[in-house]
What does this fold into?
Amino acid sequence: MGPSGKAASVDLPRAMGAWTRSDEVRRISPEKIFDYMDGAGELYLGYRFDHIDVAEYSAPGEDQILVELYWMETSDDAFGLLSGDWGGDPVDLDGLPARAARPFWLPERRALYGAGLLRLWSGNLYARVMTYRESPKSKEAVLKLGRAITAGRANSPAPPFLDALPSDVDTGFKLRSDRVCYFRSHLVLNSIYFLSTGNILDLGRSVEAATASYAAESRGTQRAVQLIIVRYPDEDSARKALVHFEQVYLPEKHKATPKSPSVDGQFWEIEDGWLGYARSGRGLALVFECRDRDSAGKFIKDSTDGLDRLEAHHE
It folds into this structure.
């Protein structure tokens, strides 16, 4: 059994079409991940990663098919890996629907395929099945392997934390479900929306966070708004993280921040638009690139209300 008592193995078929699996299924531990992949290992270690199982399939005259099974501590962590890139076409893997029955604005696609690569989320498992040269035969084999991997595994809901994200805001902006990412590490955040080379929000394995992009509903040149919400283990951690953010991201304005800031948050006009942020309990909301202070205020209110509802439900 793997993390949290969940099965951490899949009975990979010996053959799939013309492809045959090698005898060895390699297991990659967190300590060995950089020997297996150069650089990208930080992405997986940024979530609560347990190990990878790697299998290779070969066929005469065809490119190899590589199967990577990433076993995570929780389903939320596996979802987070998929949420880093919503590119590709949703795929139905027999009982693992392309979309689950949730509010339309939550990005619960479970399997995505494009250009020879299948990525899927199934419980505490994130998997990649890929071939470098796609053909009709290899695509069929890749998708069948995806079905074999997910067979008999129960579907899990998206992280409940995402329910704190407002679906739309009373400023003419609507959440883009293909621009929602669940994460724990500042390295993941910076790959989606760069804030700083350092960990200025004090993110880590015990922290939940999400970033989402909101597009203007009316046509025009208005750029998207970026929202970040974070939940820390306790209020003190959230308070310290907010101070850290202010000190690094807004060093001059931090000095001017009142000792007893407004309960509605802090708002500053900076180079790329209006920035707003507020803490509520152990939750933190930050919004970037708003067109005016009023818009930033509405984003912050809706977000902190969502965090408060989530906390009340959690209690």
Helices lie at 33-36, 41-45, 75-83, 136-150, 186-192, 235-249, 251-256, 293-314. Residues 3-150 form one domain. Residues 1-5 have pLDDT under 50 and may be disordered.
